[in-house]
């Protein structure tokens, strides 16, 4: 017996019917990995361990299926599973929790592998014109605005993801590495002939890696440092982004040029830029210092310069075009002469190896200069990425002049795209700090008292920015984000501190102060603050220097925690519309920066759908957003999936400003304004009924693993800014979402929507809104996902940990009301009915998550009963293991 090959019982018939619909290749992968895991468990813990895992699995599945059929015995079935969990010894309970977590890791990688398989099959069929592809977007836009205008918009396209280190990736790096090795073996298996020695070897290696995964502790023993988080992000760059980004450009260019691809200069722009907060976001993270930021930049630069050096060397070695057939241009000869003048030894060596291959020798010297830039050899180093691009274009133009178009437009062009995209810094480090910290630092400086340690650190940050700009170029770090911007003074303070740090305005680094509007009140005041902001002399100077470009950031997390998910969604839309109109009125090229999280309560959900639902005039071919935690690995961990994600986002960004899409959003906003107003008022009222109740905060900590989640070493950043659990104001949005998710309630994704829809009351009107109002459609689709992962059976058990029946009843009543009205509005019989593949995936894994939730509840009950706060005791260890497993099963944390 193994996790996947157990015979079907009567209680599993409907589950089997669902399983039959799943692609057979995916089922085969999951079955294989389950069989091997079962063998590993038996070898490690004996057959009794596997029996216990199987018993809990069968009980959880039976209870889940009875609940879905509204069987009167479902409660007793779950009680049977609960009793079984309670009967396990502490050691066995931990082993079972780890076994289910391992299973989720294997299932997740099988699903990812299958997603890649499907994408590759689609590519093999020549489906480049899929509805959400760049090709389809360009075709649709051309039909609406004409080919010339489309070409202009394409040239100005910008997709700008910003990687953040918010602690929502529950897996250890060692676990993630093990999963990647198993995934590679699974890919290898697709091309192995069955029944051969190679397949037997693949079986052996798979079992070995699964055994390593099983024996690797899923819990970190220490919190990662900010630089650990930087290095983790660098793995993503090295493994995928460096190669994937130019490949996406290339696929677009191949489609644009058709049979002329490679024979003509490229037309696809380098439309992506990468940003990072990792090692630079100091808002509430005392471990991110000026020295850390400097080190983070150095690590990133090392990776990009090594990558560029290797590519330039590889291309240089293959560019063996002889001067007889491919003569050098006068500009190339002049470049070679300049290279000889300051790099005599290097050029002599290369010239000896390639005396009659002028393009090869110049490019190999370029590679040496990139290496010198990395090693800080001033004699050979490039001063800026623009200097490198100038040399590469001399080589490219010389090749074109000599008729070698394919060499000019091939791998050399990929290198040019990489330099345009990543520069010498790889990802721009964006500093973020709380407005309150700036005010305190300035007050300290102006007081004439000795500078406090905090003030010294604030000033050191500006000095570090100046150093980074001098070392890697201005674009390495020029954006300075002010959290909780509440007035234009909060932005003026950025420039005042820069002058104080460097001694004068002239010596200060180039800075773009970016307001971050997070709370409901700040969103409402945004345009007033912006109007005052652009009157600041420093901002006026930046507007003049940049062609009146301005960036504004919107916070999804805190606004949702502030007024609830429904009101936050509507407030963010309204704020964007007002800011976009303000920018148009003031002749400003606006970029809205969306602080979206991975979870639905933090702006999560399908990002390309969200782009298309933005207010008219708010995108204009530019979309910037945060990519954080588990989302980074989900979207960019695999090359095929990363390429697909980048293309989808670019296509949506291009189409969002199409006349038809803007008209659809504009008309829907007008037609359903009263619906929005009713929903806003009622949902916020309902949300306040909950969170403003006396004693809500400690009750919340009692019925969820909020405090215990803080013990899980997810990231370097503390879970709270400093206040006690008596107050939610200083609780970060991530643990707020994480705790509700772990309790299988997912309150942050749906609470208040049921009351809001019921307040509207008109089902025909709501269904019309669902059909025609993109914002509303996206909201309900996201809530369906949240509800699909919500389980009222388990929610009741978590809520019973507290002593507030009134609050528990309020949560459960709103949950039932939301299910009822979402079902009425969507005309779906169950959540995700319109997305069958996703629905099946959630339903297939839900019983396994239930098993881990029961283990977590066992631990929580013990902790609550004993009052223990010892993170090393058995209940806490079981709890943290279960938290890790539930995160893997639900595939989102914060």
Features:
894 residues, mainly alpha, 41 helices, 9 strands, 67% helix, globular
Secondary structure blueprint with pairings:
Blueprint: H1 13-21, H2 24-45, H3 47-68, H4 74-87, H5 90-124, H6 134-145, H7 147-155, E1 158-164, H8 173-189, H9 197-215, H10 226-257, E2 275-276, H11 290-318, H12 330-342, H13 344-353, H14 358-375, H15 385-401, H16 405-409, H17 411-422, E3 428-429, E4 431-434, H18 435-447, H19 453-472, E5 479-483, H20 488-502, E6 512-517, H21 520-524, H22 526-533, H23 537-546, E7 549-555, H24 556-563, H25 565-585, E8 589-595, H26 607-612, E9 622-628, H27 630-636, H28 639-656, H29 659-671, H30 673-691, H31 696-703, H32 706-709, H33 733-742, H34 747-750, H35 753-760, H36 763-772, H37 774-788, H38 792-799, H39 805-826, H40 836-866, H41 874-890
Parallel strand pairs: 1-2, 1-9, 2-3, 4-5, 5-6, 6-7, 7-8, 8-9
Helix pairs in contact: 2-3, 2-5, 2-9, 3-4, 3-40, 4-40, 5-8, 5-40, 5-41, 6-7, 6-28, 8-9, 10-11, 10-17, 10-28, 11-14, 11-17, 11-19, 12-13, 12-14, 12-15, 13-14, 14-15, 15-17, 18-19, 18-20, 19-20, 20-22, 22-25, 24-25, 25-30, 30-35, 35-39, 36-37, 37-39, 38-39, 40-41
Question: Radius of gyration over alpha carbons?
Answer: 28 Å
Name the strands of the widest sheet in spatial order: 3-2-1-9-8-7-6-5-4
What characteristic shape results from the CA principal axes?
globular
Q: Structural class, from secondary structure content? A: mainly alpha
Q: Note the beta-strand portion.
A: 5-15%
Instruction: State the helix count.
Output: 41
What is the end-to-end distance? 35 Å
| Biggest sheet features | 9 strands, parallel
What ranges have pLDDT less than 50 throughout 5 or more consecutive residues?
1-21, 599-604
Helical content class: 55-70%
Mean pLDDT, to the nearest integer, reads 90
The total beta strand count reads: 9
Q: What's the assembly state of these chains?
A: single chain
